[in-house]
Design goal:
mainly beta, 14-stranded parallel sheet, 13-stranded parallel sheet, 2 helices, 39 strands, 6% helix, disordered N terminus
């Protein structure tokens, strides 16, 4: 054997020995929680001592551990600290779609926090919350996430009867945060931000809100609010259902937002004192796509594009494509933004509104309204109060729209 071969053999043996001395990654530990303090993994009726509170299990866990919570009532506020990433909290209904399941203490892990507490405060990256009912948070949100962390998974939870449902934030680094298969209902207890299913005002980036249900919120199902220096960006709201929420989506200072294939229905009216538009865009938002939504009986307008005082340049680049709005208490499409060319509205149906089908205020200009159908409106199907050198003496372009009544004449052709 040559000297070179010996050296190679020694190096290989040394490397192998060094690798054998490196400890392997330890498997995740699973903790079991039962409100009576007696259970074991796979058997919540076992007479084995275990954690009686979720927080005690969180305190004992380390990153990547799993916490299984048995059915029962947990009167506590639970905080997952930032130094415990990838912690997975599984309720008794883990993996079961919360939009359709029955609720009962016999089959739910119910978190009902003490006065002024949140149900869950998830402060660590990649926290998972799956299969709980969170109710009775009378001083804060049912569930909250941190603007300094990301990659949250909040799924299959019932969040109801709190001040507001989910206080949603994410830094957007690495991967997105997903909110899916949850039911948000009647989160209207008195307090700050009351009446919202999902509320955000500290920064939300790379968020997917998909396939959730919302109902009976007196302010809105989803609200991204404005705080100076805070960014709401890269947000998808898709395939959700909203019933009797004052507003479905309300955007402030948001950019690159996609609102797709959602359905809303509302039985409220002006007499109820709840008069929000189904989708409202304002507050210096830009690059917004509103497409293939079905909005039934909005308590005010179906889709509203606004300029909000104090928000700088106002809204820009809103695309409204292939939506159906029926039975709005006010207007189907309601644009009051004075920003030039803020809206392109193509191939929408605005039917049976109590006001106008399509309404463009006197300050609007440079908008493109094309191939829409507006019919059965109590006031006018097509209405534009602006004055300029474009269609029919208005400041906007109207092309190939259909409607039986218009002002001025020439905006729409009869259906």
């Amino acid at each position: 054997m040559t000297l070179r071969s010996v050296r190679f053999l020694v190096a290989a043996v040394t490397a192998a020995l060094s690798l054998s001395l490196v400890p392997s990654a330890s498997a995740a530990t699973t903790f079991v929680v039962d409100d009576d303090g007696m259970a074991e993994l796979g058997n919540c009726d076992a007479a084995t001592a275990t954690h009686a509170t979720i927080q005690s299990a969180v305190d004992a866990a380390v990153a990547s551990d799993i916490i299984h919570v048995c059915p029962g009532l947990y009167e506590e506020s639970v905080t997952v600290p930032q130094d415990k990433p990838r912690l997975r909290l599984f309720g008794a209904q883990r993996g079961v779609d919360a939009r359709t399941r029955d609720v009962g203490v016999e089959n739910e892990s119910i978190v009902d926090p003490p006065a002024d507490g949140s149900g869950f405060s998830l402060l660590a990256t990649l926290s998972v919350l799956d299969g709980f009912t969170v109710t009775g948070a009378d001083g804060n949100a049912g569930v909250s996430t941190s603007p300094l962390r990301t990659r949250y998974r909040v799924q299959n939870n019932i969040v109801e009867d709190n001040v507001f449902g989910l206080y949603l934030h994410s830094s957007g680094l690495e991967r997105n945060t997903q909110i899916k298969f949850n039911r948000f209902a009647n989160n209207n207890l008195p307090g700050s931000a009351s009446g919202n299913g999902i509320y955000s005002d500290q920064g939300a980036q790379d968020i997917k809100i998909r396939a959730n249900s919302f109902s009976e919120h007196t302010n809105g199902a989803i609200l991204f609010g404005y705080v100076e220096g805070v960014t709401n960006a890269t947000i998808l709201v898709q395939n959700n259902r909203s019933e009797n929420d004052a507003t479905f989506v309300n955007l402030f200072a948001a950019s690159f937002v996609r609102i797709l294939q959602n359905r809303t229905s509302d039985t409220r009216n002006f007499d109820d004192g709840v008069q929000g538009s189904s989708i409202r865009v304002g507050g210096e938002s830009n690059d917004i796509l509103i497409e293939r939504n079905r909005l039934s009986k909005p308590a005010f307008s179906g889709i509203a594009i606004r300029d909000d005082v104090g928000f700088g340049a106002g809204v820009s680049n809103v695309q409204v494509f292939d939506n159906q709005v029926s039975g709005a208490e006010a207007n189907g499409l309601d644009v009051t933004s004075a920003v030039a060319g803020v809206v392109q509205a193509f191939d929408n149906d605005f039917l049976n509104s109590d006001g106008d089908g399509i309404s463009m205020s006197a300050d609007t200009r440079g908008n493109l309204i094309r191939r829409n159908r507006a019919g059965g409106s109590a006031v006018l199907d097509c209405h534009d109060d602006s004055v300029g050198a474009r269609t029919a003496g208005t400041a906007n372009q109207w092309r190939n729209n259909r409607g039986d009544t218009d002002q001025p004449e020439g905006l729409c052709t009869p259906i």
